[in-house]
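**User:**
Make up any protein.

**Assistant:**
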Amino acid sequence: MNATIKTIAPTPPAWKRIVYVLAGALIFSLNMKSFVNFAGLIPGGFAGISILIQRTVEKLTGFHISYTVLYWTLNAVPVYISFRFIGKKFTLYSLLMIVVSSLLTDFLPVINITEDMLLCAVFGGIINGLAITLCLLADATSGGTDFIAIFFSRKKGIDMWNYVFAMNICVLVIAGIIFGFEKSLYSIIFQFSSTQVLNILYRHYQKVTLLIITDKPDELYKIIKETTNHDATRLVGTGCYMGTEKTMLYTVVSSDELGKLSQLLRQEDEKAFINVLKTKEIYGRFFTRVMD
């Protein structure tokens, strides 16, 4: 093995973060002005709350409130929490996403791609998930409930996106009461599609347990420690088939670290037996890379 091993998933360089955030903002806004606005969907989160308030006020009074004003106002408290407890640069890049996406959403024209509500819900959700994923890959977020999800994911060590989905359902129920449940039900499909894309493409807060049986425990532990900064526990036992002494390393890592880590482990010990188990929750100390 090389003496120096690069840590998996380092913070992206500034130029790449800006490109990812701007691309995410553009995709998010185009999606809002095509699938979401054209079909009358409620996307959930603070974007959905902003649209819900905007449409409700316009329906009751005929007065149009800027989406940008509503979205910025709702994000004020989450931005403060993020700046204090998550990371300053993370918050600034997220603010870039919030400002650009909201302005584009207000000024871009409505784009008619399809009049099929189901297609709008499914593909709109997929594109929404892609836009949010680009922001997360840049160590930023699209704002609102994403700030909350990341804050609790870091505090509790669990994947919060499904909980965000549940909170969004509450918003959609309110929208259904005001505007009718047909569009709310389609909006639930939109949210489900978006959440599944996030779970597939962004796995930083998902954890896996590795049980590694090896004859090179010191070498493999060094790889685990230097690439992920996670520790491991060594267990010594006897292989029943051959009756020889074996060592098992037990460790928990983030899902997005698994691919590269397993490759490095196999390069060092091609005979290693690696069992990967999905980890629902962990309690205790677990290293999480600082977002900044």
